[in-house]
């Protein structure tokens, strides 16, 4: 009897170029390189940014059946040939979608992390004029359509699954929840890469690793800095990690008050946090963000929006504020730092203990693969039955 053909699985992260998506994909593949799976050949389709991060971690991509580096950007992937890489694959796992394709015989599993689709009525869209609102709706309807091309979905928190299940197009799709995790590099200081910050004369340094998306609400930081100085005589510098084009698009007032250190690779992220006195996170909307977990992991106080998607992760181990009120953000920051150092240290220690309950990246990788193996096996059984009928 001939041996059954191995499952052919493609891990697709060719569409991930910056931010948390790159970090998650890098961590997943780095862990996957150390694990063994029988009857499964794993192929990689990496963006240049994910590939570069894996090289910096020393990940051995030769352990996979194949590894290609290609960069695809948004809907342009339709005519850039993304779907040609799916040929011969039983299952394609796009770590974060959407995956832009029209025809494919492969089973498609896609990671979902687009809060503007499941929460269309939010503080961001409320600020838009009629024309921009229509452009916004068209853009995310297109994204939503391509998400529905997936056969199954993976999300990072339960509220995202609940939100998707309320949308008719997703109601009957398998949706799995796999909680995110911080890469082990955050626990291995010897692997942290150096980072030199611009000089600062301020008393405190607060920062965030993030893209400059509108829902991140980072434009409020300049006003927060002003209130800290005027209302509390507290000089604070805020640090961001914008790409050059993002930084150039900011107005002169923001660029004059905020310090940009540029994009970071995964091994520089814990270094960045270690150089801060605290982490600021004024986001208005998220499916999930690793920022709160990362802040607690490196024992830095977290100042974040008082919204359910953050409370679900942090519980009471966060200094919460109203993200639309710069004066309230300034007050919360000042109230924390006016406490005695011993009290602040105790608070940070409690947050560190809290974050230890979260599963690690290896556990996440194993859960991803368990879902993949179950889906690809079921898909092959259906294909065989169809051939026999």
In summary, what is this structure?
This protein folds into 2 domains: 7-181 and 359-388, Rossmann fold (3-Layer(aba) Sandwich); 187-355, Glycogen Phosphorylase B (Rossmann fold). By secondary structure, it is an alpha/beta fold.
Model description:
- By secondary structure, the protein is α/β, with parallel strands linked by helices.
- It folds into two domains: 7-181 and 359-388, 3-Layer(aba) Sandwich (Rossmann fold), CATH 3.40.50; 187-355, Glycogen Phosphorylase B (Rossmann fold).
- Helix content is 41%, strand content 15%.
- Mean pLDDT is 91; it is low at 384-388.
Rg from alpha-carbon coordinates:
22 Å
Q: Tell me the distance between the termini.
A: 22 Å
Strand content: 5-15%
Question: Helix/strand/pairing class, anyone?
Answer: alpha/beta
> How much is the average pLDDT?
91
- Helix-strand topology string: EHEHEHEEHHHEHEEHEHHEHEHEHEHHH
Biggest pleated-sheet summary: 7 strands, parallel
Number of domains: 2
What portion of residues is helical? Answer: 40-55%
Name of the CATH architecture of the largest domain: 3-Layer(aba) Sandwich
Given this structure, which CATH class of the largest domain is correct? Alpha Beta
| Number of discrete helical segments | 16
Large-scale geometry: globular
């Amino acid at each position: 009897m001939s041996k059954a053909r191995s499952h052919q699985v493609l891990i697709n992260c060719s569409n991930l170029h910056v931010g948390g998506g790159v970090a998650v994909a890098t961590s997943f593949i780095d862990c996957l390189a150390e694990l063994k799976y029988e009857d499964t050949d794993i192929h990689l389709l990496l963006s240049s940014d994910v590939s570069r991060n894996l090289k910096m971690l020393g990940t051995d991509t030769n352990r996979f059946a194949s590894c290609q580096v290609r960069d695809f950007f948004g809907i342009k992937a339709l005519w850039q040939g993304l779907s040609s890489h799916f040929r011969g694959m039983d299952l394609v796992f796009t770590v974060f979608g959407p995956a832009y394709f029209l025809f494919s015989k492969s089973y498609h599993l896609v990671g979902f992390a687009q809060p503007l689709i499941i929460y269309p009525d939010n503080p961001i869209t409320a600020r838009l004029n009629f024309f921009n609102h229509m452009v916004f709706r068209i853009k995310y309807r297109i994204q939503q359509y391509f998400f529905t091309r997936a056969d199954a979905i993976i999300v990072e928190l339960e509220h995202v699954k609940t939100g998707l299940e309320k949308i008719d197009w997703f109601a009957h799709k398998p949706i799995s929840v796999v909680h995110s995790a911080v890469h082990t590099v955050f626990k291995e200081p010897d692997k942290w890469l150096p980072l030199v910050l611009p000089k600062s004369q301020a008393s405190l340094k607060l920062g965030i690793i993030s893209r400059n998306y509108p829902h991140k609400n980072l434009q409020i930081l300049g006003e927060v800095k002003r209130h800290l100085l005027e209302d509390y005589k507290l000089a604070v510098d805020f640090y961001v990690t914008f790409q050059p084009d993002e930084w150039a698009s900011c107005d002169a007032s923001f660029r004059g008050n905020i310090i940009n250190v540029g994009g970071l690779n995964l091994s520089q992220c814990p270094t960045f946090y270690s150089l801060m006195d605290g982490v600021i996170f004024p986001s208005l909307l998220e499916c999930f963000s690793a920022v709160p977990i990362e802040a607690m992991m490196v024992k830095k106080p977290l100042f974040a929006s008082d919204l359910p998607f953050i409370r679900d992760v942090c519980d009471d181990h966060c200094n919460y504020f109203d993200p639309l009120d710069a004066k309230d953000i300034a007050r919360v920051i000042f109230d924390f730092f006016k406490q005695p150092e011993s009290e602040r240290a105790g608070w940070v220690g409690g947050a560190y203990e809290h974050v230890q309950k979260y599963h690690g990246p290896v556990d996440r990788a194993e859960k991803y693969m368990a879902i993949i193996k179950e889906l690809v096996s079921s898909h092959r059984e259906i294909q065989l039955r169809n051939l026999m009928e």
